[in-house]
Amino acid sequence: MVDENDHDHILMEDKTLDLNSHISIPSYMEQCLDLKTGEIYYMNSTNGMRVKEDPRKLVSSKNADEFSGSVFSEEDSSYHESEESSSESSPSSGENQKEEDGLVVAGCKACFMYFMVPKFLEDCPKCASHLLHFGRSDHSASP
C-alpha cells in the first residue's frame, strides 16, 4: 500500500531557474543547487561560507570594495587586487580581461565531479587533483 502523504518525494512544478551564467561570479565563489529544495546558494570556497544572495547582484548594487571587505574574508587579497585593477582599466582591456577570465567546464577524475571553473584553474577545487578542461579554446589542452 502506498502512502499518499509520502514526504520523500518533492513534486517539482515546471520551474525555470535563471542561473545568470552569462555573468561570471568571482573565481573563489561556487554557484550551487540544492537538489532537494531547488534553491540556489553560493559558497565561498576559501572559507566555506554559504549565502543565498547572488554576489553579482550585491556587487552591482554596492561599491565593490565595500562589498568585498564587509561580506568576504580579508584573506582573499587577490579578489581585492583584481577588483581594484579592473576598475582602473579601460573598457577595451576590460573586454580582453573577460575573455581571459571566462569559465570552462572541467572534470576531476579523482572525485568524479564536474565544475565551472576559470580557464586558468588547473586543480580541482574540492580535492586539488588535476582537472580535465572541456571546451578550452587554447592549445595547452591537458593530456
From TrEMBL:
Domain of life where this protein originates: Eukaryota
Matches recorded under InterPro entries: WWC/KIBRA_Hippo_Reg
One Gene Ontology cellular component: plasma membrane
Renumbered residue ranges of the record's region Disordered: 52-99
Protein name: WW domain-containing protein
Record organism: Arabis alpina
